Amino acid sequence: MAFSKLPIATTHPFRSMRILDGSSIKLPDALHTMFPGTTGGGVKCQLEFDYLTGKFYYVELQPGKAGDSPSGLSRLESVQKDDLLLQDLGYFKCDLFRKIEKKEAFYVSRARADTMFYVNSSHPRYHKNGELMKKYAHIRLYLEEEVQTMKPGESKEFPRVYIGKHERMPARLVIYRMTAEEQKRQEFRIKRRKQTKPGIIKQKVKDLSSLSLYVTNLPTDIPASEICTLYRYRWQIELLFKSWKSDLGVAPHRNMKLERWMCHLYAELIIFLLSVLLTYQVRHYFWREKQLILSERIAIREVSERVWKLVQARASPKWKELMDELLHILASNGRKNVRGSGPISWLT
Questions:
Q1: Residue 191 confidence (pLDDT) above 80
Q2: Torsion, CA 228, CA 229, CA 235, CA 237, rounded to 10
Q3: How many CB atoms lie within 10 A of CB 240?
């Protein structure tokens, strides 16, 4: 089945923009044995969807205290040439980046502030036989020094860096120094993380909190500013999780047997997946026909209230009547408040 794609004005025509993330749902303590969370019972839902079509490529339920990185590797089976994968720190793994590159796909990933980066040495040393001494091939890149040379809102790139003290995986590094307002929000997130998650935040992470670090294998004809903007689309998956929990009411679960709870969750998940897919197709229709951008959350909420009726009415005259009603409501109430355009916009 062919799906309409949102017309994003990027330098490279990506086949898809795949965004992966996980979100935890608190469960009754009775389900702790099957789905242990950090405290009590909890389940983590890993979802990967394509921002251009609304299609979901990967869905996994795992214990709430599970890490993200295994899912990053598991979902690679469906990755194809020219896919763009946007992912957060939880999936930062050199082995994962290599496998994405092997499939002729692209990635943009946040990098941790304590990641060790190296660049080619300007004064390499050689053995007597002319062979390069690996020990002196690269020198350390100190981000603490780089941040001193950058102005707020400025991007800087290194076309070739090597990640890791031992792995030395080649990649492209883009550094963005946040504005004062962005840094204030970042410091609030760090403070909140310290309150909600165990462990000690390293001093280096605090010192470099004004920097956003992105590693990628995108070609150099794609400017650094576009890479930063591409990564900002990653928050769309967080918006979907927020809609699922708040608007579709998935989060609260009373005490029930495991089998009943799983049936309940899978039913809610199916409604959510269908609602998102239809929402993105409707968004494309409104942009193409009316040059109007719909709010994702409003559209998902309205679609989810009608999705089962639409499924039951498919291939019947009732289906068109339901769709006309939905389109009328969204045209009246679903317009998105767009504050301003960035380097990447929707094509007209």
A1: no
A2: -110
A3: 25
